[in-house]
Amino acid sequence: MSCIMTRYYDYVLGLIPAVLFGLTALLFLAGVQLTLAVPVGAGASVLVIGHALFVNVPGETDPMADQRSTVRPPTSD
Asked: CA dist 28 to 15, 25, 48, 74, Å?
């Protein structure tokens, strides 16, 4: 295992401004007015945030992790 691991939320933190500015710029360059392109870009960023908060819940753990850590191997007496 590598000491430096990029996790899901690292990608989310980078994706939020990328979607906001990238989609806004793309729409603006495609001819959409800036007053419409900014809310569309912001809405897409909100969807990324919503996915990170509600679909892939922070701190979600494996439900079996607690049971695995408390189960002790049988001892031979």
From this structure: 19, 5, 21, 66
Euclidean distance between CA atoms 22 and 20, whole angstroms: 6
Query: Pick the residue with more confidence: 76 or 16?
Result: 16
* Residue 64: per-residue pLDDT: 57
C-alpha 68, offset from chain centre: 27
Sorted by sequence, the CB contacts under 8 Å of residue 32 that are 6+ apart come out as: 40
11's tokens: 């990608």
20 neighbors 45 (Cβ within 8 angstroms):
yes
Cα 60 from Cα 50, distance rounded (Å): 15
The closest alpha carbon to 11, from 77, 56, 66, belongs to: 56
Tokens describing residue 34: 């800036």
